[in-house]
Design brief:
With 295 residues, this protein is α/β, with parallel strands linked by helices. It has three domains: 81 residues, Winged helix-like DNA-binding domain superfamily/Winged helix DNA-binding domain (Arc Repressor Mutant, subunit A, Orthogonal Bundle), CATH 1.10.10.10; 98 residues, Periplasmic binding protein-like II (D-Maltodextrin-Binding Protein, domain 2); 92 residues, Periplasmic binding protein-like II (D-Maltodextrin-Binding Protein, domain 2, 3-Layer(aba) Sandwich), CATH 3.40.190. It has a five-stranded mixed beta sheet. A five-stranded mixed beta sheet has the order 9-8-10-7-11, with helices on both faces. Helix 1 packs across helix 2. It starts with 7 loop residues before the first helix and ends with a helix.
């Protein structure tokens, strides 16, 4: 049985105008004139024998039947887009772009790159800086390695590395000030904060501190700068094991406490839900999860 389907150009113009609420904006998106959009929609309305829009001076609104048609058109175009992306996607990755923050990239990812190239010799790896959740929407990375959890809409989320907080300072500073035995004795140190005082206060509270730290210390945006300041005896920093383990094992920094507060945060691998799950991409995700669980 032959399907009776309205003109596809007209449906495309209708869907764009309905979604954007404007013939003018629809024309800009489809690279045609507003007159052409209006002509296509009028032609569609004539073929259906009913109005689809209530036309206003500055914007247009859908009629009840127009709303129903818009829902179907939106779903149909989304399905066509998804299927077209899937059938044109190569089974093998040739280039993989990873969005990652500078600290995690230098301390966790970089030491594992040689193993990644051994396991995926045909994949060209590219790293791009993405250090905040709101930067994800602006990035074209294939996967993201992010600190969280945060609000990540439309993302598949895989935990890869749990962490716990460890206060550290340089050997020279420890020799001068000693190892704190109570939460209050940490006030002997100049505290180095990463972005805000929240993490230090949560850790000190878990150790039994009576009041939060509301002033003093130094707040830094870059965690690598924070840890460099700690090694230069500028103060005590709160970092994350296992990321800080190499400095502790080498003696460059000394752990100021064996206290391990439970922590719900860590590092996660994110993939946009619209990204086709090819076999090799699945292998890459599994590889990263295995690397994290091996800590």
């Amino acid at each position: 049985m032959r399907r009776k389907i309205p003109n596809l150009h007209a449906l495309r113009a209708f869907e764009a105008a309905a979604r954007l609420g404007s013939f003018k904006q629809a024309s800009q998106e489809l690279l045609v004139t507003p007159t052409a959009i209006s002509h296509h929609i009028r032609r569609l309305e004539d073929s259906l024998g009913l109005p689809l829009f209530i036309r206003g001076t500055r914007k247009v609104e859908l009629t009840e039947r127009g709303e129903k048609l818009m829902q179907t058109c939106g779903q149909a175009f989304d399905m066509i887009h998804k299927t077209a992306s899937e059938i044109t996607q190569k089974d093998d990755l040739s280039v993989l772009t990873i969005g990652v923050g500078p600290s995690f990239a230098s301390r966790w990812l970089t030491p594992r790159l040689s193993q990644f190239w051994l396991d995926f010799p045909n994949v060209e790896l590219r790293l791009t800086r993405v250090s905040a959740g709101d930067e994800i929407a602006q990035s074209d990375a294939d996967i993201f390695l992010m600190w969280g959890p945060q609000d990540w809409p439309d993302m598949k989320i895989y935990p890869i590395l749990p962490v716990h907080a460890v206060p550290v300072a340089s050997p020279d500073l420890v020799e001068k000030l000693g190892i704190p035995q109570t939460a209050e004795e940490f006030s002997n140190y100049n505290l180095l904060f990463h972005r805000n005082r929240n993490e230090w206060n949560l850790w000190l509270k878990s150790l039994g501190a009576d009041a939060p730290v509301t002033s003093g210390g130094i707040i830094m945006d870059d965690e690598n700068v924070l840890l460099r300041s700690a090694t230069e005896s500028q103060g005590a920093a709160l970092s994350w094991s296992p990321l800080i383990d190499r400095e502790i094992e080498s003696g460059a920094l000394i752990a100021l406490s064996s206290h391990r507060a439970s922590h719900t945060r860590g590092y996660y691998l994110l993939i946009n839900e619209s990204t086709p799950a090819t076999p090799q991409l699945t292998e890459v995700v599994d590889w990263f999860r295995q690397q994290g669980s091996g800590e």
